[in-house]
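Incident log, structure service

09:12 report received: a user says their structure output differs between two submissions of the same chain.
09:20 pulled the input from the user's history:
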Amino acid sequence: MLLRKKWIIGVGLPLILGGCLNMDNTNIDEIIQGNGKNQTVPKEQKTEDYLVRVQDYTGEGYELRNGEETDKIAKAHRLEIEKAVKDFFLEKYKTEVTVHNVVGAIDGATVFVESVGEPHFYTYAIVPINAEKKKVYINNVWTEEGQVEDCISGGIYAMIFEEELKKLDQYLQTLVSEYPIVGSRIEAIQNVGAVGYSTEFYYITTYDDNLIKLSDLYLQYPTRTKEEWKNSFNKNSFEPDGVIIAINLHMKESEAKPDKVIF
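09:34 re-ran on a clean worker, output below:
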């Protein structure tokens, strides 16, 4: 399975993909809103220049539109940005995070992080940058409205439904051992994932109000244990379609076509 080197994003459907996946440079806001537009690759550009096997993709070379200058500034101020983002998540979301990647974007840097411990999730924050003044506004870190909260809710859902998800994990491990399919590398998820609770095979998105409210409870009780979450939550309190587990599997061989039998 081949992927564009610039970035990779999963779709909210269970899919097995094959052949070449044509990914383009897109601003993170456009990715979240689903409004990314295709760009034409020059005919003289060789395929190997912009495609990479999914087994090899780690997020290296990820770019956001019009982020060339801010990316240079962000790299020069990496340590300041990391500290500012870590402090921001501790203060606003009561969560310790690890910073995996900092990428320049329009008027800022997108910082990809992973929560430490549970609830476990991947997300991002934005640090404003003035490219003309070469100034980083480390005191103005911000996040998309509701984005981190949704990631927290998915992480708590995974804690509550730990046993059920273990069965799903075992099932998917069995599939990839029996068929020529693979998931994503954990490095890619860490460096450019930012979609909440994720494994190499799937990520979780919550929609039901009772699930979304889990993040509000977490901000009130950030030290609540896994067992306390399990005991306090009624597993029948939400609609089944209130949560989506998006499974992303890829054909192992780069030139292989999608296999209907495996699907």
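09:41 both user submissions now match this output. Likely a transient worker issue. Closing.
09:42 reviewer note: The mean pLDDT is 82. The chain has nine helices and eleven strands.
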